[in-house]
Design goal:
about 160 residues, Rossmann fold, 2 domains, 5-stranded parallel sheet, 4-stranded antiparallel sheet, 5 helices
Length: about 160
C-alpha cells in the first residue's frame, strides 16, 4: 500500500489518509511533496497528572492542527526526550514528584529553549510571577478559557 512520511514523529500515513489531515508537509515515496496545514509538524507536549485534563487538552490542541504528546508526569516527559521534539510544553503547576515549576527550571538548566504554558487549579500570584519572570508564555487558571490557550499557543509558536 502506498505511504507517505509525514513530519509527525513516528507516524506513516497511507496516501488515502492525507486528504483527512490538516497539517504538515508530507513526502511521498516518489519524492513529490504534499503540503498540508503548517501547524501539523509542531508537537505540543501536555504534562498533567490529571488524566481527564491531559486528554481534553490534547484533544483541543489536536483540533487546532497541532500534534500532541501526552505525559502523566514531568518525569515521564523528561525521560521521553520530549524536550528535543516538542515545540511547546503545556504543564500543570502542581503535580506529584517534579512540579511544573521545577520542570521549567530543568528545561532552562538543560538549555532547552521550549516555550512553556502553565495551567493550574490553584492560582498563586507568587508562582505566576516566578514562572513568567523565568520566561513562561502563559499562566492560565483551570478551567482554561479556550481562546486564552489559543492566544498562548500562538505566542509560543512565534518565539
Amino acid at each position: 500500500m502506498p505511504w507517505a512520511k509525514c513530519m509527525v514523529p513516528g507516524k506513516l500515513f497511507d496516501l488515502d489518509e492525507l486528504s483527512n489531515l490538516s497539517g504538515g508537509r508530507c513526502i511521498r515515496p516518489d519524492s513529490q511533496e504534499t503540503t498540508l496545514n503548517a501547524k501539523f509538524d509542531k508537537t505540543i507536549a501536555i504534562v498533567d497528572d490529571d488524566a481527564s485534563a491531559r486528554e481534553s487538552t490534547g484533544n483541543f490542541v489536536r483540533s487546532l492542527g497541532y500534534g500532541a504528546a501526552l505525559f502523566a508526569s514531568a518525569e515521564e516527559f523528561l525521560a521521553s526526550g520530549g524536550m528535543h521534539t516538542s515545540a511547546c510544553v503545556i504543564s500543570d503547576v502542581r503535580m506529584p514528584g517534579i512540579s511544573g515549576v521545577e520542570l521549567q527550571q530543568r528545561l532552562i538548566d538543560g538549555l532547552a529553549e521550549i516555550p512553556v504554558i502553565f495551567v493550574t487549579a490553584f492560582a498563586e500570584e507568587h508562582i505566576r510571577r516566578r514562572v513568567l519572570a523565568a520566561g513562561a508564555v502563559g499562566y492560565l487558571t483551570k478551567p482554561v478559557a479556550p481562546q486564552r490557550l489559543v492566544n498562548c499557543l500562538e505566542a509560543a509558536m512565534r518565539t
